[in-house]
Design goal:
Blueprint: H1 3-9, H2 23-35, E1 45-50, H3 53-62, H4 68-71, E2 74-80, H5 83-115, E3 119-120, H6 128-134, E4 142-150, H7 164-167
Antiparallel strand pairs: 1-2, 2-4, 3-4
Helix pairs in contact: 1-5, 2-5, 3-6
């Protein structure tokens, strides 16, 4: 799929078919995550992948009952790993760059999913500690995004976007 077509096709989907994701597609999605840019190439994040019903159920609970997490073939949890940036970038690296790194990686996953004919939705409404425990992440990591991925079982709801002149401020 052409890059700009991917951007047009990407929509938030909250209903998934029970169809498993093919291993080769999942591998491509994971490789896209690994290719995401990061501050100093430190990749100050960890990604937890689950396709297990018990872990997905724990994530539903941690995410305020968002049941579609359990429907998705795979769920990715993006956690910051601030210590990977601490030595080089100090507090800014721990508090900002790590978050940027993890969210860029999540964005790459969303776009890769779309290019592969899969669907996803960014989930940010959750209890940090409950998500961290659900994926068995160490205490020094903090989840910043949960991304369920699978084959859509609904048509996307198209929403209007702000006009460019309302968000772009040219300084010429």
């Amino acid at each position: 799929m052409e890059f700009f077509d991917v951007l047009k096709q990407r929509h938030s989907i909250r209903a998934f078919q029970p169809t498993p994701i093919e291993p080769e597609k999942l591998d491509q999605l994971l490789e896209a995550i690994n290719r995401a840019p990061s501050a100093g190439n430190r990749q100050a994040y960890e990604v937890y992948l689950t396709q297990d019903d018990a872990h997905k159920a724990a994530l539903v609970s941690a995410a305020n009952g968002q049941e579609f997490l359990a429907q998705a073939s795979a769920v990715l949890v993006f956690c910051i790993h601030p210590a990977l940036n601490a030595e080089r970038y100090g507090k800014r690296g721990e508090n900002l760059y790590a978050v940027q790194d993890a969210t860029i990686a999540c964005t790459y996953a969303m776009l890769a999913a779309t290019a592969l004919g899969l669907s996803s939705v960014w989930v940010g409404a959750f209890n940090d500690e409950a998500v961290r425990q659900a994926v068995e992440a160490p205490e020094d990591q903090r989840p910043v995004a949960v991304l369920p991925v699978g084959y859509a079982a609904e048509e996307p709801r198209l929403r209007d976007r702000r006009p460019l002149n309302g968000i772009i401020h040219r300084l010429d």
